[in-house]
Amino acid sequence: MAEDAIRQVFLAETKELLENLENDIVRYEETKDHELIHSIFRYVHTLKGGSGMAGYEDVYQFTHALENVLDSVRNGVIPMNDLLADIVFASIDVIRLRLYSQEETLNESNIQEKFNLLTTKISEIESILQKKEESAILEEKEEIQPIYNFFRVKAKFREDIFKSGIDPLIIMEDLASLGIITELRVNRSEVPLLDNLDPEKCYLSWDVILKTKSKEEALDDVFIFVRDDNDITITNVTRNYVAQPVIEDVPKLGELLLSKGMLTEKEYEDVLSEHEKTKKKVGEIAITKGYIEENDVTLALKEQENIKKHISTSTLRVDAKKVDNIMNLLGEMVIGFSGIKRIAEEIEDEKAYRLNNALYSVDRIIREFQEHLMRIRMVPIGPVFEQYRRFIRDTAKAHGKTIHLEIAGGDTEIDKTVIERINDPLKHLIRNAIDHGIESPQEREAKGKPREGKILLKAYHQEGNIFIEVGDDGAGIDKQKVLQKAIATGVINNTEDVPDAKIYELLFAPGFSTAQAVGDLSGRGVGLDVVKTNIEALRGSVDIQSQPDAGTTFIIKLPLTLAIIDGMLVKVAHETFIIPILSIVESVKPAKNDIKTIENKGLVVHVRGEYVPLLKLHDEFKLPQTVENPWDGLVVIVESQGKSLGLVVDELIGQQQIVIKSLDREITTSKAISGAAILGDGTIALIIDVHGFISA
Predict the structure, then answer these.
(1) Do residues 195 and 237 both lie within one domain?
(2) pLDDT, tens digit, for every residue of 206-258?
(3) Residues in Cβ contact with 357 at an 8 Å cutoff, skipping those fewer than 6 apart
(4) What is the C-alpha to C-alpha distance for residues 99 and 47, in angstroms, rounded to an integer?
(5) N or C: which end of the chain has fewer CB within 10 A?
(6) Residues β-bridged to residue 610
(7) Selected catalytic residue, list 67, 413, 439, 639
(8) For this structure, is 45 an active site residue?
(9) Are residues 595 and 660 in the same domain?
């Protein structure tokens, strides 16, 4: 049972780890930032350790060999070139296949064959490295110095240092500018109680480990004006860190004992040496040798456990199904509460006031509950964008193109359910951009463009929705070519006065494509009908903007959540409909002279100096004409993507929070309906899709 739990945790964490590993390799190829090599090594090291603990012996052995090669990359012995990057990517694929294939589809012999093939390639690299090392020994070359130095800096300043015009924090910032502070401890033991605290005195002292390419003289220069009057010590501890392949977030027991001064560096090395030989526990060896007492180990272990707890409680993994179950219960609560409110409105005695006050409090609590639960369901879209780096890199490489991915708005949050269902449409749009949006390097160069193309993934919140843009800096959409194809296939009859929006809409027609040949990737238009269908299934929409030789951008509009919305209930004949509050601009009671008829446009209403098209919901849903003329009813002005529409209704019932229920397309094919809701009295109301109405 415990082993199963370990495996579940390992598998959950490794999904994210493999994505981060892929992203860092792509980033390294783009930036050549050597820090990313250290990050890549740490991910593989973590994967090796985790797979061993979880009982995946084949993955453990494989990643151990891969780790050895990456260690040589980290130490500058071999470069991370395209060939090695491809091997690491292939390794990620086979590890993912091994860990996440369903049992019924798992072909162990096929996976083992891939493991063997990659292991052979890795062994060849290791063999070359071994020959290099032997050659280096024979030639008695000078030992290669580490790329980075590690210094331990202890700084305790005089209490009255502020009076000399010196700020210790500025000095510590100058120190940090020389490299990376990998460990930081602040001693607060001398800070007095608040009553005795003097804001003009410095009570703190610092103990840091600095990773830097600078020499010790550079660190001395940072403290040049304070060294004589303050307690400053700088110690080179490089050998303690270079020997360790990974600096873990949770320090090891020996490191803690060393950092606290319980062990000297010589004693620490002696303990580690015996630990490697005998595999005995570090604390046990140190006690046996008389370096420390048992109480010292107990204190260090307690601190280590506190650090672990702090790290583990920073995030909490919860099964998404549990959150969905709570969300469903909340939905039922909202429906039940709406029914209670409706009954309360019918009570007219002296208790009604007290009841309504109580209901108001419950309503507020339910809304807060909903808000907090939605925050749990919301996740940043950045990691989703990041996972396309590998996809873009491989796809572009297969077509002889170099394409750079730019990400904007990665911290924008969206419902996890939406994220899971938006993956395929986004991938298809990216694939189209690579294949037929962005030109070849030669074509781009001839146009005066950079040889490297660009894809921009951008996300932002607006009007209570999330917008996702997939843009490229390619050739743009050839509108004439699209029109010619549309005429040839009989989609349209002529090309007179066809607006851009209508031309772009043609690309979403089933089977419509302007591609000259069928290749591995879809041409612009192939499969876009599926993209649109998937997005509309999420109550979303997709629009296109394009400029010749400047590129094309697909703009996807999605709701923040698929579960609960605020809606305005309206009466149309004997039926009740719901209009999302976020789509409503205002409601008006028009005068007769505000209603006009425009040729080819139909009825419009004059509102605030503008003419807005009118639509009678009675006509759309074939209901009795309880409102014969628009001025006899109410007009609800709605808006989507900058376009307005007036919906004629009988009356407004009121605002209500509703739980959205999806409708099977066999029940309704109307693009004007996005779902349904069960009201407090048990009746069912259809939810108006404002964007569907306006686009139609």
Answers:
(1) yes
(2) 888 888 888 888 888 788 777 778 888 888 887 666 543 333 344 567 766 76
(3) none
(4) 12
(5) N
(6) 607
(7) 67
(8) yes
(9) yes
Alpha helices in 378-478, H assignment, sequence order:
382-386, 388-398, 416-432, 441-446
Give the separation between CA 588 and CA 55, rounded to whole angstroms.
68
Catalytic residue chosen out of the listed positions 432, 439, 465, 534: 432
Shared domain check, 522 and 461: yes
Residue 580, token pair as written in the block? 């999302």
**Degrees (nearest 5) of the Cα angle 121, 124, 128?**
145
**CB neighbour class for 300 (10 Å; exposed up to 12, middle 13-18, buried from 19):** buried
Q: Of the residues 312, 335, 367, which one is the last residue of a structural domain? A: 312
Distance CA 622, CA 300 (A): 77
- Same domain as 324, residue 263: no
- Which tokens in the block code for residue 631? 């001025």
- How high is the pLDDT of residue 570? 93
**367 lies in some domain:** yes
Q: How many CB atoms lie within 10 A of CB 119?
A: 18
Q: Helices 57-74 & 108-138, crossing angle to 10 degrees?
A: 30
Whichever domain contains 18, its CATH number is 1.20.120.160
Rounded-to-integer distance, Cα 58 and Cα 22, Å: 21
* pTM to 2 decimal places: 0.56
Which residue reads 């994967």 in tokens? Answer: 47
What does the pLDDT look like over 335-394, one tens digit per residue?
Answer: 778 778 778 777 777 777 778 888 888 888 887 887 777 777 788 888 889 888 888 988
CB atoms within 10 A of CB 336: 11
User: How far apart (Å, rounded) are the C-alpha atoms in residues 228 and 224?
Assistant: 8
Q: What mean pLDDT is predicted for residues 447-467?
A: 89
Separation between Cα atoms, residue 628 and residue 102, nearest integer Å: 61
Residue 517: what are its φ and ψ, rounded to 5°?
-145, 155
DSSP 3-state assignment of 404?
strand
Rounded Cα distance, 659 and 338, in Å: 11
Q: Taking Cα atoms as reference points, which of 469, 542, 556 lies closest to residue 504?
A: 542
Strands (E), 49-121: none
| Cβ proximity of 655 and 581 under 8 Å | yes
Hunting for tokens 């969206």 — which residue is that?
Answer: 414
**326 token code pair:** 């709570």
The SS3 assignment for 686 reads strand
Question: Which residues of 195-277 form beta strands (DSSP E)?
Answer: 205-212, 231-236
- In the annotation, is 350 catalytic? no
Same domain, 522 and 600: no
Residues 94 and 227 in one domain: no
As a whole number of angstroms, the distance between CA 648 and CA 663 comes to: 24
Catalytic site residue 432? yes
Inside any domain, residue 144: no
The two tokens of residue 253 are 């027991």
Same domain, 57 and 163: no
Choosing from 22, 23, 38, 45, which is the catalytic residue?
45
Q: How many Å apart are CA 321 and CA 12, to the nearest integer? A: 15
Please give the Cα distance from 239 to 241 (Å, whole number).
5
Residue with tokens 């031309």: 503
